[in-house]
Design goal:
Blueprint: H1 6-9, H2 13-23, H3 33-46, H4 48-51, H5 58-64, H6 98-102
Helix pairs in contact: 2-3
Length: 124
């Protein structure tokens, strides 16, 4: 299933009908809006060499072009695709406050020591 250009999907049906009439399409009066979008998309892509300069279609053809970055110093006619280098994200590091490092560790829980019971020797 082909994807319809987003620019066509945003248009209202009467605008799509006017556009279809403007470019010379026929037999589109009974089409539902999604069918008209698909038919217009196919027609405009097929006839791009003839229609790409039409100002009424500039929004459609502008969005069909793939994004291209220009090199610095290059003129408007010279373009090249620049790949983005993805860098791995650094893990977040946590640091102890300086106060915590300077103070000795003191437990907040009491320390329990179990001693064996004390036996006393009694004289008999």
């Amino acid at each position: 299933m082909a994807t319809v250009a987003y620019w066509l999907q945003r248009q209202r049906k009467p605008d799509l009908q006017n556009l279809a009439s403007h470019v010379g399409m026929t037999n589109f009066d009974n089409l539902l809006k999604p069918e008209l979008e698909t038919a217009l998309d196919d027609y405009l892509r097929t006839n791009q060499p003839r229609l790409h300069t039409d100002p009424a279609l500039s929004g459609f053809y502008k969005r069909l072009e793939s994004p291209v970055k220009r090199e610095k110093g290059a003129g408007p006619a010279t373009t090249s695709v620049v790949e983005e280098v993805k860098r791995p994200k650094q893990r977040r590091q946590t640091f102890k406050a300086r106060e915590d490092l300077e103070q000795p560790y003191v437990s907040s829980t009491p320390l329990l020591i179990h001693l064996p019971p004390h036996h006393s020797k009694t004289a008999l």
